[in-house]
Amino acid sequence: MTELRGKITDAKTIVVKVGTSTITHANGSMDYHHMEKMARVLADLRCDGRNIVLVTSGAIGVGRFRMGMSEKPNSLPQKQALAAIGQVSLMHIYSKFFSEYDQITAQVLITRDVVDDTLKKKNTYNTFCTLLDYGAIPIVNENDTVATEEIEPYFGDNDTLSAVVAELIDADLLILLSDIEGLYDKNPKYHQDAHLIPVVYDVYNQEIDGIGDTDNDLGTGGMKTKIEAAKICYRAGIPMVITNGDDPDHIYEILEGRDVGTLFVPCMDHVHV
Ligand code: ADP
Questions:
Q1: Ligand 1 atom with minimal separation from the 211 CA
Q2: What CATH number is given to the structural domain containing 150?
Q3: How far, in Å, is the centroid of ligand 1 from the Cα of 252?
């Protein structure tokens, strides 16, 4: 555990994924208050010499709000069109908030074939490395416009995408900012006696699998895709933490080695400190 704590507190490259419900209100409009607070914390960590990659959801929800659609879109073309509309607004606001703290942002849109195709994977890796060398903060989202139907369950609400990115760039830590404190033994929205699981030592334990799906209208992955993300991180030797995005200061607490949310311990064979 000491080795792992060191990997977390000294983390040089951190991938932070933020879920739709953290950066948008229930009606899909952007939650400027939360986005601004998060940008401030991430900009501060960048100033402290850490490499920051932000994986953001929310494009479809924001697009839906901009189009005044109350119903959740059903068809793939509708989702892709709304994502294209929402992505512009999202990036505009991120760019505005980060530049207030003197940070340069870059938009990176990725599809699944990035990890399947050796050349695309290498090119994407090189782009990330160059952006981080420049001191920029890459802001990543799934490239919904060209994504195909089968891509959706794979990446979920960007949970697994963030783990794929973390593995690709050999990050030291993945933080998932969610609308809930962490992983509970059952969904606390339905079970008052649910308990937070502070540490998951073995994400492959059968009791962890199938602990719960999402129940809200905006988020899409629930804990299922977060557990899938944790498996990718486990194999890659990257610690992963789920915490509540309500208060981005939790990120500081994680980096101080404090117990926050749920920590997924990676396969320690890969952890060299
Ligand atoms: P986000 O994208 O903000 O992370 P999600 O809806 O994808 O939001 O995931 C968080 C949701 O997962 C919670 O609001 C909760 O309803 C649901 N959930 C299902 N099972 C669990 C569980 N065992 N522990 C915690 N949350 C759970």
A1: 23
A2: 3.40.1160.10
A3: 22
For ligand 1, pick from 57, 214, 220, 224 the residue to mutate: most ligand atoms within 8 Å of CB. Answer: 214
> How many independent structural domains does the chain possess?
1
pTM of the model: 0.93
C-alpha 191 to ligand 1 mean position (Å):
13
- pLDDT band for position 217 (50/70/90)? very low
DSSP 24-77: B-TTS-B-HHHHHHHHHHHHHHHHTT-EEEEEE--HHHHHHHHTT--SPP-SHH
In this prediction, residues 202-211 reach a mean pLDDT of 82
Domain that holds residue 144: 2-270
Centre of ligand 1 from the C-alpha of residue 227, in Å: 11
Tokens of 165: 């990115």
Alpha carbon nearest to ligand 1 atom 21, residue: 187
Length of the chain: 273
DSSP letter for each residue of 80-127 = HHHHHHHHHHHHHHHHHHHHHTT--EEEEEE-THHHHSHHHHHHHHHH
* Chain segment 107-147, per-residue pLDDT in tens: 999 986 788 899 999 999 999 999 999 999 999 998 877 76
**C-alpha of residue 147 to centroid of ligand 1, in Å:** 24
